[in-house]
Amino acid sequence: MRKIAVVGFGQTKFGELWDKSLRDLAAEAGALALKDSTLDAKRIEALYVGSMAPGRFAGQEHLAAMAADQLGLNPIPATRTEAACASGATAFREAVNAVASGKHNIVMALGAEKMTDLKTSEATTALMGAGDQEWEAGIGLTFPGLYALMARAHMAKYGTTSQQLSTVSVINHRHGAKNKKAQYPFEITLEQVMRSPMVADPLRLLDCSPITDGAAAVIVASEDVAKKLNPAWVLSVQQASDSVALHDRASFTEINAACVAAKKAYEEAKLSAKGIDVAEVHDCFSINEILAVEALGFCPAGKGGEFVEANAVAVGGEKPTNTTGGLKSIGHPVGATGIRQIGDIYLQLTGRSCNQVKGAKRGIALNVGGSGATANVTILGGNV
Amino acid sequence: MRKIAVVGFGQTKFGELWDKSLRDLAAEAGALALKDSTLDAKRIEALYVGSMAPGRFAGQEHLAAMAADQLGLNPIPATRTEAACASGATAFREAVNAVASGKHNIVMALGAEKMTDLKTSEATTALMGAGDQEWEAGIGLTFPGLYALMARAHMAKYGTTSQQLSTVSVINHRHGAKNKKAQYPFEITLEQVMRSPMVADPLRLLDCSPITDGAAAVIVASEDVAKKLNPAWVLSVQQASDSVALHDRASFTEINAACVAAKKAYEEAKLSAKGIDVAEVHDCFSINEILAVEALGFCPAGKGGEFVEANAVAVGGEKPTNTTGGLKSIGHPVGATGIRQIGDIYLQLTGRSCNQVKGAKRGIALNVGGSGATANVTILGGNV
User: Fold this and answer.
1) Phi and psi for B141 in degrees, rounded to 5?
2) CA A361, CA A271: separation in Å to the nearest integer?
3) Please, how many CA atoms are within 13 Å of residue A303, restricted to the half-sphere of its CB?
4) C-alpha triplet A226, B3, B239: angle, nearest 5°
5) Alpha carbon distance A302, A168 (integer Å)
6) For chain A, which end, N or C, has fewer CB atoms within 10 Å of the first or last residue's CB respectively?
7) Greatest Cα-to-Cα distance within chain A, rounded to the nearest angstrom
8) Under an 8 A CB cutoff, do B239 and A79 touch?
9) Is A136 in a helix, a strand, or coil?
10) Identity of the residue in A64, A101, A369 whose CB atom sits nearest the CB atom of B62
11) The predicted structure's pLDDT at residue A323
């Protein structure tokens, strides 16, 4: 495969952005990524837009062509990609494939979601589109419920505690307090998390990432273009799938798709977990950061709770994870998250993070769709 | 780029399939494509699923992972692609890119849509997600209305007649009468079309493709795999974009994205329109077949109506087009159509069409999204 790099990143403020439409958000993120890359819009040869449910959230399908037009990029090819909350990372993967194929040299991968125009109950229903309609939605399951089932199973099998779950949110908010793009850029205490209202036992309100509007974009380029810019090299892009319905999985205490994608990603990058300096993982619910650090091999299976509680995921710890706040503090505009994660790794590897890990040379991002039917693992390497 | 071929095709019956779910349809098409290719499911390395609005039509996002699971393909990467009614062709394009990149050797591209569970008014609203919500849907425009505007403009500029529009439907039904997979496999007369109820002047009911359930799948493989099977070679895969809103376009009497994609496709395939033996084009409304034969260079701009009226698009004519019935007779499950078109070209080039064009060596497919904000042109070549 050709050498390929990320050469620019842009992100809108994440939050309840009632003054901005989906179109506005996509255009703003794309324009910021172009500016960061120093490339002219005319250089972009194709566009991929990750978005989970723009039709249900905003009535608008066909979002990639719309974003291309708003950015002045048409008539370039523009395709939306979707794999629930992993939609962003799938857009990145297709952008990398498009460059790897030799068909294109410079491609934009954008992620966007405008979620707060719906009532919370409607948004919860729309999000449940990422689960199995016939077997899960039909019996009243929602995503807090699905992740609560996984959390309970993990607690029962490994002794993971509520305090460990809560600690995920505390650390991510500590990181996010420094992130001006975050929806909730402030610290929270362990007591606040553990006394917050119960949503789906054992998950409390502050175990859950919020409903968010936002967009993010990265620009991907071939080696000859990238080496003249500010690159972080794509060392691997892997994706795996599993059954959409949780009950069909071999295990409830791990996300097998994440384990498969991580294993392949390390093989492709010729690395192990030891070689990773910084990580972005999918803490849609606190339990999922614990499952993530296990899937990425940062600690043995079942030890994720202890790993978090030992501050190993904090900046300054063994594996700084979600250093800019994670989905919990930054917010989770579902289609944008996978791109935002890759962008935040890019900022770390180019020494520009709001919470810089000194000397970070290699970073990993794990974006998860649904309750784990899709997982994307991306490894980037700094310009060493 | 590596040499890549289509090596298998499967299609469900298209129609009002109340006894089959979206999951059933996707699995059936995928299984039929595997059978046609003679490949074992274990050989499939990645899956792309084109679907426009499964969330709005059936509540179900995350369809690619679901289809992969139902076909027994997980944990392979599975991504949904969307570009409105061109979603199918975008899935094909990503499958080709995935093989071209060297990352995969055998990839399935599937298209599926389950539309008839909604009331017609709800389906019309969902389909309008392919238009601009703020500038078109907001003023009450629907897709029959958008294409009617284009038809009126074409009539005013070039003298295209209602009878020419109606002839598109008559010829496509004549072709489709031989297609056992078609939703409406019967002939219709010019008088029936011209006396059918007006939907959006000048488009009558029988100028409009129907609302349909259905799925189709093709298997794409690298040269070393394909040459042992029954291949039709991918000579080009091009895609272009334009503004989603019709009023923003430079012209209403051509679909510029289709013209751009066709020009690039002919360049990539080192062919001109003269070299094409058979075509599948996007007759979502009769006017769009006229715009299509102009965009593909089968006749000069403005002469599409006369070209159709002269029977040039009929089997036995100069450029046999929509030889299996087109969207009008076969039906238009939106995400499936682009794959069905490519599959029908594949059948022609392997001598197995229900309405075989003798000696067909090269075929072209044009899949259009929305009112023309996306266009995909694919050229396949027989095993000569």
Assistant:
1) -70, 145
2) 12
3) 11
4) 60
5) 15
6) C
7) 55
8) yes
9) coil
10) A369
11) 98
Residue B7 per-residue DSSP state: E
| CA angle at A335 for the pair A369 and B341, rounded to the nearest 5° | 85
Cis peptide before A75 (omega within 30 of 0): yes
- Report the alpha-carbon distance of residue B143 to residue B43 in Å, rounded: 40
CB contact under 8 A, A83 and B65: yes
Please give the span between the terminal C-alpha atoms of chain A, in angstroms, as a whole number: 20
Helix (H) or strand (E) holding B283: none
Domains and their CATH numbers in chain B: 4-119+212-226 (3.40.47.10), 132-209+235-381 (3.40.47.10)
Q: Show residues of chain A in contact with B83, CB under 8 Å.
A: 62, 64-65, 78-80
Contact B56 A60 (CB under 8 A): no
Residue-wise pLDDT for B89-102, tens only, equals 999 999 999 999 99
Mean pLDDT over all residues of chain B? 97
Question: How is residue A333 written in tokens?
Answer: 């505009």
How distant is the alpha carbon of residue B181 from its chain centre?
15
Q: Which chain B residues contact residue A370 at CB under 8 A?
A: 62, 65
For residue A384, pLDDT beyond 70: no
Please give the structure tokens belonging to residue B46: 């990645």
Overall average pLDDT of the B352-377 stretch: 98
**Which two three-digit tokens encode residue A253?**
């205490």
Average pLDDT over residues A145-153: 98
Distance, CA of A17 to CA of A35 (rounded, Å): 22
C-alpha span between A252 and A147 (Å, rounded): 10
CA pair distance B226, B208, nearest whole angstrom: 38
Task: Name the pLDDT band for B2 (thresholds 50, 70, 90).
Answer: confident
Specify the pairing of strand A106-114 against strand B106-114: unpaired
With the C-alpha atoms ordered A292, A297, A303, A309, is the resulting torsion angle positive or negative?
A: negative
Residue B1 buriedness (CB in 10 A; 0-12 / 13-18 / 19+): middle
- Residues whose CB is less than 8 angstroms from the CB of residue A172 and which lie 6 or more positions away in sequence, other chains included: A283, A289, A322, A325, A326, A327, A328, A329
Nearest Cα neighbor of A58 from A215, A178, A209 is: A215
Active-site annotation of A, residues:
85, 332
Closest CA to A269 of A291, A296, A294: A296
pLDDT digits (tens, 9 = 90+) for B67-77: 999 999 999 99
Question: A290: Cβ–Cβ under 8 A, 6 or more apart, which residues?
Answer: A154, A160, A164, A165, A168, A304, A305, A307, A308
Q: How far is A371 from chain B (nearest CA, A)?
A: 11
Determine phi and psi for B150, rounding to 5 degrees: -65, -40
* Rounded Cα–Cα distance for residues A114 and A117 (Å): 7
pTM strictly above 0.90: yes
Which of A1, A20, A81, A97 would best serve as a mutation to test chain B binding (most B beta carbons within 10 A)?
A97
Residue closest to B37 by CA, chosen among B325, B343, B335? B343
Of A343, A305, A306, which is closest to residue A323 (Cα–Cα)? A343
Give the distance, in angstroms, between the CA of residue B70 and the centroid of all CA atoms in the same chain: 24
Q: Kindly list the residues from chain A whose CB atom is less than 8 angstroms away from the CB atom of residue B82.
A: 61-64, 79-82
Give the 3-state secondary structure of residue A382.
coil
